[in-house]
UniProtKB/TrEMBL annotation:
BP GO annotations: defense response to oomycetes
Phylogenetic lineage: Eukaryota, Viridiplantae, Streptophyta, Embryophyta, Tracheophyta
Cofactors named for this entry: L-ascorbate
Keywords for this protein: Dioxygenase, Iron, Metal-binding, Oxidoreductase
Catalytic activity of the protein: salicylate + NADH + O2 + H(+) = 2,3-dihydroxybenzoate + NAD(+) + H2O
PANTHER family, alphabetized: OXOGLUTARATE/IRON-DEPENDENT DIOXYGENASE (PTHR47991)
Alphabetical list of Pfam families matching this protein: 2OG-FeII_Oxy, DIOX_N
Family: Belongs to the iron/ascorbate-dependent oxidoreductase family.
Name under which the protein is recorded: Fe2OG dioxygenase domain-containing protein
Keyword Oxidoreductase: yes
Coiled-coil residue windows: none
Fe2OG dioxygenase domain sequence ranges: 197-296
Length: 347
């Protein structure tokens, strides 16, 4: 393995200093002492989905709309994904990353077109500075097209992760309906723009880092997909940009963090925001996060909903139409550049 792939070895346990290819320029470092806590900022609204299909339906829809508009992030509780299923996927992820290196590396690839792959950093072919993470990326919809490529070790991996993916997809579709309604659109509008739909997930592993102030688990970025359903373990690491400052979003048991992706910002014609966020690391504990990325199929054509465009009312379309494949290719090849990838598709 090359030095770029250091984190895929077990050498990390003996590293006392961050290798030079993980050290960010001083001006771009996390500045961890300046990060605010989310508890006092009301940054991440908590939305109870228990009444999404009950008498308080319109109230829940309104809360989701306000969260998408003003925060770009929100938490959900009473989401319908069984707690045992959440515990199982956390366990299976930990077991995978604790396998012997030789077993884990059976899944390694730096080819982003592979639908199941273990890799490190963000894009090992183009990253100028590496990120302090390993990840196992899985495509998971339709399941029957992909599950045969998933790891077979741990032995229950395929069965338990498949159950989790199916349950999270159900949650995602409920949220998409609610977000459509919150925009004043037909409940099935957003879902209908996604072609045959796509669903990926990642198991992100952030090892303890001897000098966390010098590097990132992942630097600041927006998500290129439609919506992300994030499951965290009990170790903090997620930070969200809010009013020009970074705010730590600490885990709350049995909740998911939902964030708006770039495609939803386009469909909403900039009413809803895809917000910068990042992952930081710590010196004491490993961290695992499991995001599910819901996205259009590659050939789906994305544009602003016509109902949200009105040239006479000074609400012209902000973005050109494009296929999701066009968008994702630009996002992947440019990496985490300073400007948002959305800017490249504005009218």
């Amino acid at each position: 393995m090359s030095k770029m792939n250091l984190l895929l070895t077990d050498l990390v346990s003996g590293v006392n200093h961050v290798p030079t290819n993980y050290i960010w320029p001083i001006s771009d470092r996390p500045n961890l002492t300046e990060v605010e806590k989310s508890e006092g900022s009301n940054l991440i609204p908590v939305i109870d989905l228990q009444d999404l299909h009950g008498p308080d339906h319109l109230h829940v829809i309104a809360k989701i709309g306000l969260a998408c508009q003003h925060h770009g992030f929100f938490r959900v509780k009473n989401h319908g994904v069984p707690e045992t299923m959440i515990e199982n996927v956390h366990r299976i992820a930990r077991e995978f990353f604790r396998l012997p290196e030789s077993e884990r590396l059976k899944n390694y690839s730096d080819d982003p077109s592979k639908t199941t792959r273990l890799s490190t950093s963000f894009n090992v072919k183009t990253d100028k500075v590496s990120s302090w993470r390993n990840f196992l990326r899985l495509h998971c919809h339709p399941l029957q097209n992909y599950v045969h490529d998933w790891p077979t070790n741990p032995p229950s991996f395929r069965e338990e992760v498949a159950e989790y993916c199916t349950s999270v997809r159900g949650l995602t579709l409920r949220l998409l309906g609610a977000i459509s309604e919150s925009l004043g659109l037909d409940r099935d509008y957003v879902s209908g723009q996604l072609g045959s739909h796509g669903q990926h997930m990642a198991m992100n592993y952030y090892p303890p880092c001897p000098e966390p102030e010098l590097t990132y688990g992942l630097p600041g970025h927006t998500d290129p997909n439609l919506i992300t359903i994030l499951l965290q373990d009990d170790v903090p690491g997620l930070q969200v940009s809010h009013k020009g400052k970074w705010v730590a979003v600490n885990p709350i048991p049995n909740t998911f963090i939902i964030n708006i992706g770039d495609q939803m910002q386009v469909i909403s014609n900039d009413r809803y925001k895809s917000v910068l966020h990042r992952a930081v690391v710590n010196s004491d504990r490993e961290r695992i996060s499991i995001p599910t990325f819901y996205c259009p199929s590659p050939d789906a054509v994305i544009g602003s909903a016509p109902e949200l465009v009105d040239d006479e009312d000074r609400r012209p379309a902000v973005y050109k139409k494009f296929t999701y494949q066009e968008y994702y290719d630009k996002f992947w090849n440019r990496g985490f550049a300073t400007e948002c990838c959305l800017d490249m598709f504005k009218v």
